[in-house]
Each structure stands twice: as C-alpha cells, then as structure tokens.
Amino acid sequence: MITIYETDRLFKLIRDKNNRQKINSQNFSYNMNNQKIISSETKQNYSGRKEEINVLPRLIKRYQEDKAFESHLQAYICKNVDIEEQLKKLLIQDNKLEWIGNEVSCGVGMQRIDIALSLQKRMTKD
Predict the structure, then answer these.
(1) 13 DSSP assignment
(2) C-alpha distances out from residue 25 to 29, 43, 60, 70, 85, Å
C-alpha cells in the first residue's frame, strides 16, 4: 500500500521518465531497454485467482483454537471497513475513505502500522 503522497510522486516519476509525453493507448507495457512505459498492441489479462476469499471462518477458527490471528483480523478489517456499518461508523464516521492499507511503513524508522486509513475530512459550514 502506498500513501496519496507516494502515489502523486510515482505519477510524477512516470511522467518525467516519459518526457511528459502522453501515451495514447488502451494497453501498456514496459520497455526494459530504454526503461519507459510504452504503448502495446496486446491486452494482458489477469489469469490468477479471481474468486472472493472469506477470511472470517479462518479468523474465528484461529481465535477459538487460541492461535495467532492478527493477520486474519487485519485482512478482515481491510476488506470490510467500508462495508460493515459498525466499522464504518466507528472508523470512518462522516469522512470519505481515500484508501486503506495494512502493515503500512511510516516515518523515518519505517515502523509498520497494522492498519492505516486515509480519510478525506468533510468540511462543515459554520
């Protein structure tokens, strides 16, 4: 997971690497020789796992067996934070969720935060 700042920085690096030239294409690839993003004739289709994974049964089972379940809990919260009404009310409140990540490295020491939410606060009119 990368932050909004890091996303903006990545876009800038890509634009600069391509001499700020817009690539008019529906498909893209990466040219290893000149290290640039290029237009591609071929559309790449994802062929990996596509079915949804329900982590809740595994989370409950690990909890009941008194086994470590932190990673399962993180996965459950990350997947359901914007869906489950209680989590939404507790964590997001009246703000707009920009992104969510788990094990997000932050700060100079690159300490990891278990779960981080980036919220866009709604301005109130006073």
Answers:
(1) H
(2) 10, 11, 46, 42, 40
pLDDT at 126 over 70: no
- Strand 111-120 versus strand 96-106 pairing type: antiparallel
d(CA 102, CA 39): 33
User: What are the b/e assignments for 65-100, b being 16+ CB within 10 Å?
Assistant: eeeebeebbbbbbbbebeeeeeeeeebeeeeeeeeb
**Cα diameter, the chain:** 57
- Amino acid at site 96: K
Q: Are strands 28-31 and 36-39 parallel, antiparallel or unpaired?
A: antiparallel
- Of 51, 73, 53, residue with least CA distance to 62: 73
Distance, in Å, from the CA atom of 41 to the CA atom of 119, rounded to the nearest integer, reads 38
Q: Which amino acid makes up residue 108?
A: V
The pTM score is 0.48
